[in-house]
Amino acid sequence: MSHRPRPRVFVSRRIPDEGLRDVLEACEATVWPEELPPSRDALLSAVEGCDGILALLTDRVDAELLDRAGPQLKVVSNFAVGFDNIDIPECTRRGLPVGNTPGVLTETTADLAFALLMAAARRVAEGDRYVRAGRWKTWGPLLLLGPDVHGATLGIVGFGRIGQAMARRARGFGMTILYHDVSELPLEVSEPVGATAVGLDELFERSDFVSLHTTLTAETRHLVNAARLRTMKPTAILVNTSRGPVVDQVALYEALRDRVIAGAALDVTDPEPMLPDDPLLTLDGCLVVPHIASASRATRAKMAEMAAANLLAGVRGERLPTPVNPEVYGAAGP
Ligand code: DGY
Q1: Closest to 12 measured CA to CA, from 166, 253, 45
Q2: 257 three-class SS
Q3: Rounded to the nearest whole angstrom, what is the distance from the C-alpha of residue 315 to the centroid of ligand 1?
Q4: Cis peptide before 33, with omega less than 30 degrees from 0?
Q5: DSSP, res 243
Q6: Whether the Cβ atoms of residue 38 and residue 77 lie closer than 8 Å to each other
Q7: How far is CA 171 from the centre of its chain?
Q8: Looking at residue 55, what is its pLDDT?
Q9: 250-270 burial, b for 16+ CB within 10 Å, e for fewer?
Q10: Residue 126 has pLDDT above 60, yes or no
């Protein structure tokens, strides 16, 4: 009896067992064993001859990598909803399907975005540092004052799944919700959360909090720059859980230092990781966490299941459950 060889795949970091075990069962898998991502050279040699790659947002998947992988490569499955680490047009040109993990991380990511908004407003991290430094001597009428969250105006940039989930949270706090999106959204989407579509300029001018939920594209790179920051209220707080390069970080540092705006809370930075000597970390008004918006146990397990499902469908020549570039299938595809 002849056995078909099991597909060869590379998994670029250990992912939760909920997805990993399916991959290990079905494939000849190499799993990068270390906590840090493979170096570029290690990544390039690991993908050679693979039928499938399960990539993370820390892996750049471009023409060079696809060439090194070879023509037998059938799928790239990204363990993320975002896919700015992958050259999608290049994959599409080669007829290579790319998968991502949409939907499962929406609520978890919005939870963190709202937590950052609250924490920045109410100076939670600063308060914690204050106590730990032994500076808490008494209750103070003027100690660590911040703005109210309830009743304030929230501007949401990018009103996709996560932006809308953020709006649902804001509604519970009685906030006025403004949003801006490149595509016109039907009233069924914006009305239930009481969100009003406005132009980008108006959103930045009117909002007490601006939360970024846009994808990173050539158009959104440095969307928040020095000029944009100058249009914000001096009391405003910027929250970013999208991608670091959406914000010009040098401009943000200067704006916070010069009190052009009051605060920022970042889950994503440019570069990642943020270096420990980054000037932003010298400012009390800037709160930074290490890209953990989707980091709940349940959500990461679901992301692993989805990424594995995309990988396995791809190596079997089946249609990916959640392809980023469905156009590779054409009209008659699987
Ligand atoms: C994503 O999925 O794009 C997040 O940034 C990480 O979960």
Answers
A1: 45
A2: helix
A3: 23
A4: no
A5: -
A6: no
A7: 23
A8: 98
A9: ebbbebbeeebbbbbbbbbbb
A10: yes
Nearest to 123 by CA among 148, 94, 98: 148
Can you give the pLDDT at residue 60?
A: 98
Known catalytic residue at 291 = yes
Q: For residue 243, indicate whether it is catalytic.
A: yes
Query: Kindly report the CA angle at 50 between 48 and 56, in degrees rounded to 5?
Result: 90
Tokens 């595509």 sit on residue: 183
Specify whether the CB–CB gap between 127 and 120 falls below 8 A.
no
Q: What is the pLDDT of residues 21-60, one digit of tens each?
A: 999 999 999 999 999 999 999 999 999 999 999 999 999 9
For residue 243, the CA-to-ligand 1 centroid distance in Å is 9
Residue 74 tokens, joined: 């059938």
Q: Where are the beta strands (DSSP E) in 153-298?
A: 153-157, 176-180, 195-197, 209-212, 237-240, 263-266, 286-288
pLDDT digits (tens, 9 = 90+) for 246-262: 999 999 999 999 999 99
How far apart are the CA of 303 and the centre of ligand 1, in A? 9
pLDDT digits (tens, 9 = 90+) for 175-231: 999 999 998 788 898 899 999 999 999 999 999 999 999 999 999 999 999 999 999
What are the CB-based long-range contacts (under 8 Å, 24+) for 149-152?
Answer: 149/117, 149/118, 149/121, 149/122, 149/173, 149/175, 149/209, 150/174, 150/175, 151/175, 151/176, 152/176, 152/208, 152/209
Residue in 18, 90, 205, 272 annotated catalytic: 272
At residue 210, what are phi and psi to the nearest 5 degrees? -120, 125
User: In this structure, which residue's CA is closest to atom 1 in ligand 1?
Assistant: 80
pLDDT of residue 333: 62
